[in-house]
Amino acid sequence: MARSEAARTALLDAAEHLFAEAGIAQVSDRKVAEAAGNTNHSAVHYYFGGREGLLRALIIRHAVELEEPRRRMFERSDSVLDDVRSLVVPFMDALARLPRPSWRARFLSQAIHDPVTATLMRESAESAPTATLIARSAVSRLSHLHPGVVAGRASLITRIVATACAEVEARAERDGQDPRWHSVGDFLSDAIAGMMLAPISQAGSTNPLTEAPALSVP
């Protein structure tokens, strides 16, 4: 690995760790550089053009890693459950490959609740087009349900997956145990598909939540 690429990777890894533990807004660019072992305290600006570039690089690194596995799974999908698994399982596989302890799930949980980073995640969707295709497929299979209800349920999915995985990751570090990501993926996929396919009661015939983006996961 070239020295510049190694420095970029070290900064990304350090930022992911620090953001996961302390929160994105609470960590300075200088602290990221120091944690990465970089003596240039302006390293984030030098390699990424600033904080926004660093966050975008973190998001794209994660999304690109999932793109091909999602595409392969989606090619064999013929149900809502298969679509959901095409989104969730590659995410679990990626988490399972990370060194222990890992901070990816906790960073992503922080990211979806940080206004700037959440916006960057939406803007970076073009770097992972398969996730959008899968989302549209899942929604199309739910055409028998009120579209507002589908949108409301879909709005919960990113938060469900991100929050659940962050909790599993934190518990695994605290207890020194295997996170069992593949079992987590099976559980979440079944639960999400069940929620999406559930019949609508009269009281739930409209979406009481704010308008939400299409089905997705971190």
What is the strand and helix layout of this fold?
Elements (H helix, E strand, L loop, with lengths): L2 H20 L6 H7 L7 H6 L2 H24 L5 H18 L6 H10 L1 H9 L5 H12 L6 H29 L5 H17 L21
Helix pairs in contact: 1-6, 4-5, 4-7, 4-8, 5-8, 5-10, 6-9, 9-10
Describe what you observe in this structure.
The protein has 218 residues and is an all-alpha fold. It is built from ten helices and no strands. It has helices at residues 3-22, 29-35, 43-48, 51-74, 80-97, 104-113, 115-123, 129-140, 147-175, 181-197. Helix 1 crosses helix 6 (104-113), helix 4 crosses helix 7 and helix 9 (147-175) runs antiparallel to helix 10. 36% of the residues are buried. The mean pLDDT is 91.
Shape: elongated
Mean pLDDT metric: 91
The number of E-state strands comes to: 0
Beta percentage is under 5%
Q: Biggest β-sheet: count, sense, barrel? A: none
Tell me the Rg in angstroms: 18 Å
- Determine the number of helices (DSSP H or I, runs of at least 4 residues): 10
Unreliable stretches (pLDDT < 50, length at least 5) are none
Could you say which structural class the secondary elements and strand pairing correspond to?
mainly alpha
The oligomeric state of the chains shown is single chain
* First-to-last CA distance: 28 Å
Helical residue percent band: 55-70%
N-to-C SSE series? HHHHHHHHHH
